[in-house]
Specification:
By secondary structure, this protein is α/β, with parallel strands linked by helices. Helices cover 33% and strands 21% of the residues. It has 2 domains: 174 residues, Rossmann fold; 88 residues, 3-Layer(aba) Sandwich (Rossmann fold). The chain contains 10 helices and 15 strands. The strands form 3 sheets. It has a 9-stranded mixed β-sheet, with helices on both faces. The chain has a 4-stranded parallel β-sheet with strand order 12-11-13-14. α4 crosses α9. One of its GO terms (biological process) is lipid A biosynthetic process. InterPro entries: LpxK (IPR003758), P-loop_NTPase (IPR027417). It catalyses: a lipid A disaccharide + ATP = a lipid IVA + ADP + H(+).
Length: 334
């Protein structure tokens, strides 16, 4: 791997120069960006994925939707459609993407839309008869044609952007200096017992600016599997197959191993679109556990009674009230 990175490093330099100039063109207003007189919050990362954007969007929905009409806007990664689409509960993952469908299923009262052109998506959401007062942009940190009023940048514990390189030698979409655009930086997927000293070292590594706030979060796994109708306690699930199509399934695999569960793992690429041959192979399995995101893509193709997922959510290790106050203050002042 190190040899490959060295071979690809010259291409990373070229790509980095291109991205740097693109960002500078937006900073110098050579390229134009739209800003808005209502709250727009973006959640994103510098890396290619696996930082926990979906649980963070869900956390923000839970924080805001009881008090404000809100909407989420995503690209709808790997969907087979184009343009603006407003989701309903009958939407199919292949048409709208798995993560937006997950948001809609979990929060049916919230507006959920997809559009690869975020400006166009925002325009269409605000043109609705009952428009949202707040829009959450999912994975739009590099979408510089929209200037969000509040940017939340995620980086995964053990895979910090400050210790990575830009594509293709590394996994970064842009250099680490792009982090300065965020008001909040969150280190996700932390061990729940992370020490103060380790937090201090991470803060120093990320070179947090004076205008930024740093938070640490972990993953809370529920103690049951569900298919939306039935729940099975964690320890009662036996002899199942784990099917994942996410960027970094290792924390989930470790959690299940730590709970001494017996399973075989079938790992696919992130947002994998299952072929009919693969679905036939999965149908031959007696019991399947997957992630909630993968469940959205598989539920239309596999028997309901044999497909389950393990719910997760983001938990702040400390200063949750401070984070909530930061978000609510922005919303109130925007």
């Amino acid at each position: 791997m190190q040899i490959l990175r060295k071979l690809l490093f010259p291409f990373s330099i070229l790509y980095g120069i291109i991205v740097w100039f693109r960002n500078k063109f937006f900073d110098w207003e050579i390229l134009t960006s739209a800003s808005y007189d209502f709250p727009v919050i973006t959640v994103g990362n510098l890396s290619m994925g696996g930082t926990g954007k979906s649980p963070m969007i869900e956390y923000l929905i839970g924080l805001l939707h009881h008090n404000y009409p809100i909407a989420t806007l995503s690209r709808g990664y790997k969907r087979k459609t184009k343009g603006f689409l407003l989701l309903d509960l009958a939407s199919d993952a292949k048409d709208v993407g798995d993560e937006p469908l997950q948001f809609k299923n979990k929060f049916p009262e919230v507006l959920v839309a997809v559009d690869e052109d975020r400006q166009n998506g925002i325009k269409n959401l605000r043109a609705l008869e009952q428009p949202p007062e707040i829009i959450l942009l999912d994975d739009a940190f590099q979408h510089r044609k929209v200037t969000a009023g509040f940017s939340i940048l995620l980086t995964a514990y053990g895979d910090l952007y400050s210790k990575d390189m830009i594509l293709p030698a590394g996994n970064l979409r842009e250099t680490a200096c792009g982090a300065h655009r965020a008001q909040v930086i969150i280190v996700t997927k932390c061990h729940l017992d992370i020490s103060k000293e380790e937090k201090r070292k991470i803060k120093a590594s990320l070179a947090i600016k004076s205008h930024q706030k740093l938070f640490f979060t972990g993953i809370h796994y529920e103690n049951y599997f569900t298919n939306g109708v039935q729940q099975i306690p964690l320890q009662l699930m036996e002899n199942f197959s784990l099917v994942t199509g996410i960027a970094k399934p290792q924390p989930l695999v470790k959690h299940l191993r730590d709970n001494r569960l017996d399973f075989k793992h079938f790992a696919y690429p992130d947002h994998h679109l299952f072929t009919e041959k693969e679905l036939q192979e999965l149908r031959s399995l007696s019991l399947i556990v997957t992630t909630e995101k993968d469940f959205m893509r598989l539920k239309e193709h596999l028997p309901h009674e044999k497909l389950f997922y393990l719910p997760i959510k983001t938990v702040f290790l400390e200063d949750q009230e401070v984070f909530d106050k930061e978000v609510m203050s922005f919303v109130a002042q925007a």
